[in-house]
Backbone:
């Protein structure tokens, strides 16, 4: 029962917000209430999973492997909790941006429902214990994201939206093919059942399936060289939408990789392929960020770079690596969403996204400077922020595991330093120097309202709340990393998951 | 009149003609296709009944909420193509219920159906059978998941109506624009 609520409540909310489409206030109340309720459910699930093992819900009463199961173990409950909290903050920000831009009475028959549908898709992706449902979850998520990225748009954004849609459809097609191949090879799509049956397949076939899964989720997670679509499409959406996508969608890809690689394709030793991909992703991403002038593009490239950090944790393939990745995902969802929200605030203040055309914001908007500085330093991993805690967990996982991982651990440090350089560069150009007048909005009709200098206070509050969440992660680093360490142990041991889904017989 | 003249100009080849409700006294006769209108009048109720049939038999036989909803949606498409709406007026203006509301109600019904079993301690989305005795007609077995199908049915009908409203009247508006451009 409980694991189904994070999926069903947002869908119910989506239906309800369409029905009350004439009353903007009702839509806002429903959206916020539903996401707050899901956060509570996620917190309860996390406590239950941490104390008593994975919580399983059998849909329609059909047991695995025949029926579809929803499984909330430590990893999925933790990611569900942090994702929903971030989604809630982004929704509050978006609501107040819409009030500031379009007026208090403007209702929308698409924004709120689609936003909630996206949230339902993300929840389903975390909770499902079934490969085909995972595909459905991705499709729900992507279909909603197509709408959000192309709403109230102009030709330029349609073009970049097209890139996003085509790439996503390609990866969905690949995913569906993979599901079909997996089913043909094993006769099941239940993840726990697959864990046992894939191990019985010939090694070559296992490798092919593992590679297909890697490419499919690699596109969603934007691993270099499959990242090219991301810096082109994300920066062109409105700030809250970009924040949501950057915070959640790529991380869902990482989650899917983490789940499938630990459960279905476990490797006893560090994966060389993933180590190489992690290094390339970290370096290419951060170098791309250094070459950009557009604030949102810089953040998008940094996002790509930090996907490499999570792939590194994945490549180590032991319990510490998996736990480190989980901790890093938690930290990164929060900080990346915060940075894009701050970028939206900066853009509204300055009227431009080009960091060369900004300057002197530290004097004019000191609050904004603080709101940018904290997540930026967190992203770079300066102690004592959550970024430092997460990177430390990854480095500890990598350092003891042989020469190859130690070398890549060095690259992690290098990429962190380059990230620091990239955010300091932004800081110097945007916040120091001579104050400049805001540029006028050159396209008042689109969704990107810039240069209005009229920003609702709740937008600052929502952003500050996310900064506070990020600081809380740093403050609660001890208990949190204990949870992620246990989550990592669960993932690598596999037995808690298998036992919960298939019953005692499966836990042999 | 040559065959050339009776052809509808290209921007209007697919534009629906006359009124959505197929009024009897239509001043303009040149753009109506009598055959299609007549067919639509006869087929519309029959297709709707067929869609309800598909909805009801869906649990045991071929059909269900999705296909039933699509068939019902097709009935509306047929009526739209045959009757159209005058001057690009939205269908919703005549149906009284806005299509998104139909979608929303359908989604709510489906999700509530999924949640109701949980209130009785059963797993989410599980279903039960109820036997009903109707005088004259005999025994009926109603499966509780029929409510889910009804939700899906409404959702699909709503989506098709919304498509007609946005794309259908959009095409008409383009056709009218092209017409006025050609005239000027």
Residues:
């Amino acid at each position: 029962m409980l694991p189904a609520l994070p999926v069903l409540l947002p869908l119910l909310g989506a239906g309800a917000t369409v029905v009350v489409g004439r009353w903007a206030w009702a839509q806002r109340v429903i959206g916020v209430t539903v996401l707050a309720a899901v956060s509570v459910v996620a917190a309860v699930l996390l406590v239950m999973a941490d104390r008593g093992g994975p919580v399983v819900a059998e849909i329609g009463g059909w047991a695995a492997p025949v029926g579809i199961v929803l499984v909330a173990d430590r990893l999925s409950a933790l990611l569900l909790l942090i994702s929903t909290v971030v989604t809630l903050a982004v929704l509050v920000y978006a609501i107040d941006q819409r009030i500031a831009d379009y007026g208090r009475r403007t209702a929308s028959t698409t924004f709120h429902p689609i936003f909630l549908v996206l949230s339902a898709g993300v929840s389903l992706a975390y909770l499902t214990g079934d490969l085909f449902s995972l595909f459905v979850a991705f499709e729900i998520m992507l279909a909603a994201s197509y709408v959000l990225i192309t709403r109230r748009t102009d030709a330029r954004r349609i073009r970049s939206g097209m890139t996003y849609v085509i790439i996503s459809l390609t990866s969905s097609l690949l995913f569906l093919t993979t599901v079909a191949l997996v089913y043909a090879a094993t006769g099941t799509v239940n993840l726990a059942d697959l864990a046992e049956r894939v191990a019985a397949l010939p090694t070559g076939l296992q490798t092919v399936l593992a590679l297909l899964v890697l490419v499919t989720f690699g596109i969603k997670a934007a691993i270099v060289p499959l990242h090219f679509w991301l810096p082109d499409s994300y920066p062109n959406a409105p700030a809250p939408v970009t924040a949501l996508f950057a915070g959640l969608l790529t991380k869902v890809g990482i989650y899917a990789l983490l789940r499938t690689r630990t459960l279905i394709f476990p490797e006893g030793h560090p994966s060389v392929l993933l180590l190489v991909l992690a290094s390339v992703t970290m370096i290419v991403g951060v170098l791309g960020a250094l070459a950009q002038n557009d604030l949102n593009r810089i953040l998008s490239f940094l996002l790509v770079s930090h996907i490499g950090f999570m792939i590194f944790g994945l490549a180590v393939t032991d319990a510490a690596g998996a736990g480190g990745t989980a901790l890093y995902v938690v930290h990164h969802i929060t900080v990346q969403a915060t940075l894009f929200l701050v970028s939206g605030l900066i853009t509204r203040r300055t009227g431009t996204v080009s960091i060369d055309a900004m300057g002197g914001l530290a004097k004019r908007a000191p609050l904004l400077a603080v709101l940018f500085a904290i997540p930026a330093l967190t992203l770079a991993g300066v102690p004592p922020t959550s970024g430092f805690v997460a990177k430390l967990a990854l480095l500890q996982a990598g350092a003891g595991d042989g020469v190859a991982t130690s070398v890549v651990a060095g690259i992690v440090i290098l990429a962190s330093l380059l990230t620091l350089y990239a955010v300091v560069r932004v800081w110097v150009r945007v916040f120091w120097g001579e104050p400049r007048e805001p540029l006028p909005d050159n396209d008042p009709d689109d969704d990107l309202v810039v240069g209005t200098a009229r920003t609702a206070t709740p937008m600052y509050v929502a952003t500050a709340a996310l900064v506070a969440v990020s600081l809380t992660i740093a403050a609660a680093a001890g208990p949190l990393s204990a949870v992620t360490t246990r989550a990592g142990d669960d993932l690598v041991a596999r037995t808690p998951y298998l036992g919960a889904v298939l019953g005692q017989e499966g836990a042999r | 009149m040559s065959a050339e003249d009776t052809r509808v100009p290209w921007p209007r080849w697919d534009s629906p003609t006359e009124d959505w409700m197929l009024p009897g006294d239509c001043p303009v006769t040149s753009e109506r296709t009598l055959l299609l209108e007549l067919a639509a009048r006869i087929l519309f109720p029959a297709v709707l009944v067929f869609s309800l049939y598909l909805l009801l038999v869906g649990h045991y036989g071929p059909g269900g909420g999705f296909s039933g909803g699509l068939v019902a949606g097709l009935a509306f498409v047929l009526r739209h193509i045959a009757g159209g709406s005058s001057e690009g007026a939205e269908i919703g203006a005549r149906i009284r219920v806005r299509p998104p509301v139909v979608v929303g109600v359908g989604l709510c019904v489906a999700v509530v159906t999924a949640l109701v079993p949980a209130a009785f301690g059963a797993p989410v989305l599980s279903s039960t059978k109820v036997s009903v005795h109707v005088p004259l007609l005999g025994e009926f077995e109603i499966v509780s998941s029929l409510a889910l199908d009804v939700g899906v049915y409404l959702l699909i009908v709503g989506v098709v109506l919304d498509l007609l409203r946005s794309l259908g009247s959009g095409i008409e508006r383009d056709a009218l624009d092209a017409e006025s451009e050609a005239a000027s």
Summary: Chain A touches chain B through 19 residues (CB under 8 Å). Residues 2-507 of chain A form one domain. The beta strands of chain A are 55-58, 69-72.
